[in-house]
Amino acid sequence: MVSTTIKVLTQTRDELNKFRESKNESYDEVIRKLVFVANTCKKDPELGKEAVEAIEKARQRVAKGLFVTETDAKKRLGL
What we know:
The chain is mainly alpha-helical.
């Protein structure tokens, strides 16, 4: 897959960070998620609202440390 570099203001970067579910989530993933939510809101506003709420709940869980890392999940599953 081909990638490119884009310039964004520091303030824009900081706003994008608010939508990250984890520090490992790339900006590409964040932007794709935002595009998905925007498109969903156009088609079905109620579903778009649910998507935004789900993202916020996930961010709160991560902030509280209520998550399992990939490494821990593999150990639990014996992988």
